[in-house]
Design a protein that fits this description.
Residues 1-5 have low confidence and may be disordered. The longest helix is centred in the middle third of the chain and has 24 residues, at 149-172. It is elongated and about 85 Å long. Helix content is 39%, strand content 18%. The strands form 5 sheets. A 7-stranded antiparallel β-sheet has the order 14-13-1-5-3-17-18. With 480 residues, it is of the alpha+beta class. The N and C termini lie far apart (58 Å). The chain has helices at 2-11, 55-63, 70-84, 91-101, 137-140, 142-145, 149-172, 194-205, 214-223, 238-242, 249-259, 274-285, 287-295, 309-324, 350-362, 376-379, 461-468, 471-479; strands at 33-42, 49-51, 107-111, 117-119, 123-129, 183-185, 264-268, 299-303, 327-328, 334-335, 340-344, 370-374, 389-398, 401-404, 423-427, 430-434, 447-451, 454-455. It has 2 domains: 9-152 and 386-467, nicotinate phosphoribosyltransferase (Alpha-Beta Barrel), CATH 3.20.140.10; 156-379, Alpha-Beta Barrel (TIM Barrel), CATH 3.20.20. It contains 18 helices and 18 strands.
């Protein structure tokens, strides 16, 4: 237990939350450096725009308040001496922060509002020291601050899937009312830790309101003032069906109907034979119960969980249509009765959604009949290079002289960095990063969100969601 307590303390020590080589960087800058200014951007990647989200979590979790203490400095001194085999740690610099700033970090961070959707290759936030003696601190914090890549990329991935679903709803459904619940987060168990599940789960909830990742709703609750960001329903897993035995499969389904007589209820139905389950059980032996349950507002959501998603979805819809009947909506697409729906939770990703929804459209089915669940592809099948996220120094002051800093590798022009002080502005309706201090401060979208240990802008989850909403949805909302 003592070991666990010690590890917990170390993991909360901001002095230890950096890459090893950064511990030595205070010795490497030019003499008389007084300012280091760096920025973060998506240099390109899979998606042409990014949803900026998650910086506020990092700031509140790690940087707000007196985060430097005597105990943390002593701990860092001992660990880094053993780690490097000699004294390289900037004990003097951290003591200065403790003694002159009360343990508050003398840096200023400007960022775009969380939830803003910005084309890649634009500045998203900047960092600079506010005390000339702490010039080394700006990039010491890079390791931690760059981890915003994860919530940002999950939110981006989720929003692009929302665009696909919205497109097909617009083409095949009467309205977009069901959109917020069309992509459900199944990713908790596939995440690398509870913390990553919380961060990624909250990022998905920027765009949708369905989740089984409780850590995500707790993260939004604690760091973005959202009492309840996501919702779920009673649902079966294979163990709660297969423990009844193959011969008791229909009894397992009947038990679900009896135990959850009202509201939405999802039941995995492919433990043995999905076609038989839809045809002879749900659409046969249990049909009257399903219909009767519907009279009380109950909705049975049948979940296939194996096979080729597009093929399985169409066949399940066809069987259920034959058993329960179909109607056509105002756009001429087939709808199951309102008390029967399906959720496809296997093989769902940005790449597979269009295939499934296009197949439904070709076969005359409205996309309003289906919801999707996504796990690994939503929260895990991404990395920092998905959006090519990078944090680079672009401006310094050395010997009182301002210097615009940049890199331009001859071997990779994509890695060319920006120069000087930056601002993000909208010019002719398009986002543009203005370099070398030539921006108009009145037009700069970057806001001071953190300065000298204090959080100066506290975004609510409601604000984040509003900023990230699809333009088509915003237009429908304004029209109504």
């Amino acid at each position: 237990m003592a070991g666990d307590s010690q590890l917990g303390a170390q993991l909360d020590n901001i002095l230890l939350v950096t890459d090893s080589y950064k511990v030595t960087h205070h010795l490497q800058y030019p003499d008389n450096t007084s300012t280091v200014y760096s920025y973060f951007e998506s240099r390109g990647g899979k998606f042409r725009s990014t949803v900026f989200f998650g910086l506020q979590y990092i700031l509140k979790r790690w940087l707000v308040g007196p985060v430097v203490t005597r105990e943390k400095i002593d701990e860092a001194v001992a660990i880094y001496k053993e780690h490097f085999g000699r004294d390289l740690f900037n004990e003097e610099g951290w003591n200065y922060i403790l003694n002159h700033h009360g343990g508050h970090l003398p840096v200023r961070i400007k960022a775009i509002p969380e939830g803003t959707v910005v084309p890649y290759k634009n500045v998203l936030f900047t960092v600079e020291n506010t005390d000339p003696k702490c010039f080394w601190l700006t990039n010491y914090l890079e390791t931690l601050l760059v981890q915003v890549w994860y919530p940002m990329t999950v939110a981006t991935n989720s929003r692009y899937q929302k665009e696909i679903i919205c497109k097909y709803l617009d083409e095949t459904a009467d309205n977009l009312e069901g959109l917020p619940f069309k992509l459900h987060d199944f990713g908790f168990r596939g995440s690398t830790s509870v913390e990553s599940a919380g961060i990624g789960g909250a990022a998905h909830l920027v765009n949708f309101m369905g989740t089984d990742t409780i850590a995500g709703i707790m993260m939004a609750r604690k760091y973005y003032a959202c009492p309840m960001a996501g919702f779920s329903i009673p649902a079966a897993e294979h163990s709660t069906i297969t423990t009844w035995g193959r011969e008791g499969e229909v009894d397992a389904y009947r038990n679900m109907l009896n135990k959850f007589p009202t509201g939405l209820m999802a039941c995995v139905s492919d433990s043995y034979n999905i076609w038989n389950a839809c045809d002879h059980f749900w659409g046969g032996v249990l049909k009257d119960s399903v219909v009767e349950r519907g009279k009380n507002g109950g909705v049975l959501v049948i979940r296939p969980d194996s096979g080729d998603p597009a093929e399985v979805v169409i066949k399940v819809l066809d069987i259920l249509g034959q058993k329960f009947g179909v109607t056509k909506n105002t756009k001429g697409y087939k709808m199951l009765p309102p008390y029967v729906r399906i959720i496809q939770g296997d093989g769902i990703s940005y790449e597979s959604l269009s295939t499934i929804l296009e197949c439904m459209k070709v076969h005359g089915w409205s996309s309003d009949n289906i919801a999707f669940g996504s796990g690994g592809a939503l929260l895990q099948r991404i990395d920092r290079d998905t959006q090519k996220c990078a944090y680079k120094c672009s401006y310094t002051v050395i010997n009182g002289k301002e210097v615009n800093v940049f890199k331009q590798p001859i071997t990779d022009q994509v890695k060319k960095s920006k120069k000087g002080r930056l601002s993000l502005e909208v010019i002719n309706g398009e986002y543009a990063t203005i370099q070398e201090g030539h921006g108009n401060p009145k037009e700069d979208l970057l806001q001071v969100v953190f300065e000298n240990g204090k959080l100066l802008r506290d975004f609510t989850f409601k604000e984040v969601r509003a900023n990230a909403e699809l333009e088509m949805v915003k237009k429908r909302q304004s029209d109504s």
